[in-house]
Amino acid sequence: MRAFARFLRRNTIALLALFLALSGTTYAAATALAPNSVGTVQLKKNAVTAVKIRKSAVTNPKIAKNAVTGAKVKDNSLTGADVLESSLGKVPSATAADTVGGSAVKSFVATVASGGAAATVLNLNGLIVTLTCTAGNAVFVANNNSGENAQLRFEGHGNTNGPFDNGTSNLTATSNFALNDAENIGSGSAHYLRANGTGVSASYGWRNDALGTGGPVACRVFGFAVSG
Fold it and tell me: Can you spell out the DSSP letters for the chain?
């Protein structure tokens, strides 16, 4: 027993160093984590804060669908380049964009094959313009279906007879005023006025050809109209 006590006194420092070394190894073995061993179950609630996330580590594929709501987007952080315009509805205050100075604006284009059925070119505020193409000859006429008295004035320039103008103070539902003055190619304008003070002004062009396609001749009318 005395010999064991002498052994301890002589080797105290060495035994203490051995104990500390073995304790450190045991601690390291107990606290070391295997790769990919920490999952959501092992994480304490609110343990991962913003400062612990590596910059650019959170990419689009890692964000759940519908995870980012409007409340999570910083005010004024999205610009036009970030928005898909086709996904937007009409801005309420932009409803007036459908008109110019309160007047409705409408573009039109119509094509009728030679001998084909008549086509309505324009139907706006009581003014109806119809296109036919009899034997390849363009004829487009104006009538009044407003149910009240109306006047019409039109003028234009054809490729054969040059300038023309005409009109009537009593445009009816069956007046059939030819706005092209029997010309097959030209341009012109028409002004329609109803008894209630509203009307339509239209600017248009027309032609009868194959448009360089080498196909059959057709009659075409194109332009725009303003109603107010």
Answer: -HHHHHHHHHTHHHHHHHHHHHHHHHHHHHH---TT---TTTSPTT---GGGSPTT-S-GGGSPTT-S-GGGSPTT---GGGS-GGG----GGGGGGGEETTEEEEEEEEEEETT---EEEEEETTEEEEEEEETTEEEEEEEE-SSS-EEEEEEEEETTTEEEEEEES---TT--EETTTT-SSEEEEEEEEETTS-EEEEEEEEEEE-TTSSS--EEEEEEEEEE-
Residues of the chain with pLDDT under 50: 27, 29-30
Distance CA 20, CA 212 (A): 98
C-alpha angle 193-156-148 in degrees, rounded to nearest 5: 15
- Cα–Cα dist 111/140, whole Å: 11
Name residue, tokens 């007879």. 161
| pLDDT value for 22 | 54
**Among all chains, which residue has been given the structure tokens 């030679």?**
114
pLDDT tens for residues 35-70? 777 777 777 787 778 777 788 777 877 788 887 777
Q: For residue range 69-99, what is the model confidence (pLDDT) as tens digits?
A: 777 788 888 887 777 777 777 666 555 556 6
What are the backbone angles phi and psi of residue 199, rounded to the nearest 5°?
Answer: -170, -170
